């Protein structure tokens, strides 16, 4: 087998798409994960990484192109450039087909589930005045890296920065801040946050407290590093249906303007919550699902949101303050979920967190919840949480995921505990990238 080093050029026949924004090729029996290529293409690729088991490479010359290849709209996209987008060179329908293939492969290989997947487009809200070019202008939260005061975006699998003067997938509300047109000495990163629904803007600075802040082109509210305890932190207001949500600083919220309302509808349709139901919303963040589930179960029901992040807990409690049937518990999900108990007294639902002593008391208690929602980070829920959720839920589970691999792993764990996949929906909430949003609905087998 030929010894290969980073920088070597290979002539490759590109095979199937793989998870992670790559396609798979082979060179002298070794697997090569190729970026900037498409299945069926012949490319000349430069090796970027060498390991004992596989190689990584960037396609620098397209010898035979796929019919799905298009010119990348972003001038910073391509081999050795910005690593934020994986599929700028691919037509949007083909991007969704590639993502569907990855999801199907992960379900089959990891969870033993055969399922045909269609990745659905996420439309822009009709109320948004901005009509973007297809696949562009959607990202309402963009974190820029800073090196020597200059702003840029990370290159793929690298700490190196690609200087940029515009990000084409950024929402215009982010671009209006003018972040890329200034220098940020003493700062490690600058995050621009905009609410497409309300127009609120926040800039989140991470770095030295002595960092110099340039005069920006529009009014913004600034957050420097980690705020002092008790300090007031700027937030943006998000709107879904007729509800307003406050989201502190750079707190989590769906980055595509159409994703939050679409996912709310999808979760409610999947779970079919009824008045009087007991529902647990794990990794609840600012309370997006919690609030609408609380509306559905009514005054005779109960919704318990669980979140570990302090600012998100404060946001969630503020956002559901009009719903007395909703309780927000702070703590690690794997710890809190095992301690929740529910009961009904005098026709009303109650909850008790045995570990913290918080929550509503009263009534004969039981450990069951009719419905459970979980929306974990990219690393997934993991076996411990799955085991606890599988024992807690009695009717349905809705699992929202942004990673096909960890979702498939956790679905296999649920399968071991007697839960089966009833339905799966996939949403193209991150065009031009490999990422996809998923909703798996589980029922007892």
Question: Strands, helices and their partners?
Answer:
Elements: E1 9-13, E2 17-18, E3 22-27, E4 30-35, E5 42-50, E6 54-64, H1 92-111, E7 119-121, E8 141-147, E9 150-154, E10 161-163, H2 172-175, E11 187-194, E12 201-207, E13 221-224, E14 235-240, E15 243-248, H3 259-271, E16 278-282, H4 288-297, E17 302-307, H5 310-319, E18 326-330, H6 333-336, E19 340-345, E20 348-353, E21 364-366, E22 369-374, H7 382-392, E23 393-401, H8 404-416, E24 419-428, E25 437-444
Parallel strand pairs: 4-6, 7-24, 12-13, 16-17, 16-22, 17-18, 22-23
Antiparallel strand pairs: 1-5, 2-3, 3-4, 5-6, 8-9, 8-11, 9-10, 11-12, 14-15, 19-20, 19-21, 23-25, 24-25
Helix pairs in contact: 1-8, 3-4, 7-8
Describe the structure.
By secondary structure, the protein is α/β, with parallel strands linked by helices. The chain has helices at 92-111, 172-175, 259-271, 288-297, 310-319, 333-336, 382-392, 404-416; strands spanning 9-13, 17-18, 22-27, 30-35, 42-50, 54-64, 119-121, 141-147, 150-154, 161-163, 187-194, 201-207, 221-224, 235-240, 243-248, 278-282, 302-307, 326-330, 340-345, 348-353, 364-366, 369-374, 393-401, 419-428, 437-444. The chain is globular and about 65 Å long.
What is the gist of this entry?
The chain is an alpha/beta fold and 445 residues long.
Keyphrases for this structure?
445 residues; alpha/beta; 8-stranded mixed sheet; 6-stranded mixed sheet; 8 helices; globular
Percent helix among the residues?
Answer: 10-25%
**Gap from first CA to last CA:** 49 Å
Could you state the oligomeric state of the chains shown?
single chain
- Shape, principal axes of CA atoms: globular
């Amino acid at each position: 087998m030929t010894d290969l080093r980073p920088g070597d050029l290979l002539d490759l026949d590109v095979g199937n798409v793989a998870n992670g924004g790559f396609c798979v090729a082979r060179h002298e029996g070794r697997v090569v994960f190729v970026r900037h290529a498409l299945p069926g293409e012949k490319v000349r690729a430069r090796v970027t990484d060498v390991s004992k088991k596989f190689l990584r490479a960037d396609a620098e010359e397209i010898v035979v192109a796929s019919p799905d290849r298009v010119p990348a709209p972003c001038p910073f996209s391509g081999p050795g450039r910005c690593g934020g987008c994986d599929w700028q060179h691919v037509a949007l329908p083909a991007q969704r087909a590639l993502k569907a293939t990855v999801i199907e492969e992960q379900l089959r290989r990891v969870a033993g589930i055969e399922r045909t997947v269609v990745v659905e487009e996420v439309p822009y809200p009709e109320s948004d005045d901005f009509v973007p070019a297809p696949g562009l202008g959607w990202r309402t939260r963009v974190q820029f890296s800073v090196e020597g005061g200059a702003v840029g975006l990370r290159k793929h699998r690298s700490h190196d920065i690609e200087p940029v003067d515009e990000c084409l997938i950024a929402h215009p509300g982010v671009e209006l801040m003018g972040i890329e047109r200034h220098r940020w000495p003493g700062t490690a990163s600058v995050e621009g946050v905009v609410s497409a629904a309300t127009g609120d803007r926040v800039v989140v600075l991470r770095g030295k407290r002595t960092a110099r802040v340039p005069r920006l082109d529009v009014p913004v509210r600034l957050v420097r590093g980690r705020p002092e305890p008790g300090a007031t932190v700027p937030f943006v207001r998000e709107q879904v249906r007729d509800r307003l949500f406050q989201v502190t600083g750079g707190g989590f919220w769906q980055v595509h303007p159409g994703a939050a309302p679409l996912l709310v509808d999808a979760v409610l349709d999947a779970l079919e919550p009824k008045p009087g139901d007991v529902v647990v919303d794990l990794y609840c963040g600012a309370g997006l699902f919690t609030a609408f589930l609380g509306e559905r179960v009514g005054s005779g029901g109960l919704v318990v949101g669980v979140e570990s992040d302090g600012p998100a807990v404060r946001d969630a409690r503020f956002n559901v303050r009009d719903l007395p049937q909703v309780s927000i518990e702070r703590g690690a999900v794997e710890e809190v979920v095992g301690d929740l108990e529910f009961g009904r007294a005098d026709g009303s639902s109650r909850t008790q967190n045995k570990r913290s002593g918080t929550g509503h008391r009263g009534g004969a208690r039981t450990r069951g919840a009719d419905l459970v929602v979980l929306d974990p980070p990219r690393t997934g829920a993991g076996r411990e949480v799955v085991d606890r959720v599988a024992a807690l839920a009695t009717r349905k589970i809705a699992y929202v995921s942004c990673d096909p691999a960890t979702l498939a792993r956790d679905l296999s764990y649920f399968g071991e505990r007697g839960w089966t996949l009833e339905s799966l929906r996939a949403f193209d909430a991150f065009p031009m990238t490999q990422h996809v949003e998923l909703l798996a609905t589980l029922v007892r087998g």
